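Deliverable D4.2, example record:
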Amino acid sequence: MFTNATMNVKVSIRKESNNQTAYAETHTVTSNFNGLITLVVGDGQLSAGSPAFNTIDWGQRYNLLLEIDPNGGTNYSISIEEPIVSVPYALYANEMQEGAFSGDYNDLYNTPVFPVIPDYVSAFFNDPPYVTTFQTEQQIANTVHDSLSPRLENLPSQVLNQEETVDSLMEMVDSIVNGGFLCGLHKGG
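Output generated by the structure prediction step:
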C-alpha cells in the first residue's frame, strides 16, 4: 500500500472498438493515509499528441485506462482498465433529439391535473356559487345598472321610505354608471 505517497497517474480514454486513445492526460497526486487518490478526469496535464477532452465523441463506447507510477515517474507499473458506463438517465437523454418536444403541454405525460374552471362566471365579486372575474369599475357599474333598473322600476313606491323614491334610486344608479362612482369610491383625479 502506498500511503501518503506522491505518484504520477496517466489517464487514458480509449475507444472500446479498437483501443485507440481518444484522450490522455497525466496527474501528479498524493495518496491519503489509506492509499487512496483523488483526481478529476479532464483537469490533468494534456499528454503530447492527445486531442482535447472536449473533442471526445461520447456517442461511442470507451474504456478508462489508469496507469500509475508509485515512485512519481513515468514508469507506469500499475494499470487497470474498465469500461465507462452511462447512467440510465444519460442514455435516455441521448435518445432525445433537439425539437423532439412539440411544445404542446398536452404531449407531456405524468403532468399535474388542474381543476376544471366552470364556465358560469358572475359579474359580481364574492357571488357564490359563481366564479368571479376581474372587471373594471365601469363594467361592474353597468352590470349593476342593468340588473337593478328593471327591478327598481317595478318596485311599488309605498315599499320605499318617504325620502327614497324609485326615481331617486334610478338617479343614484345612473350616477354610478355615468359619474364613475362605485360603492362610495370616486374614480378619477
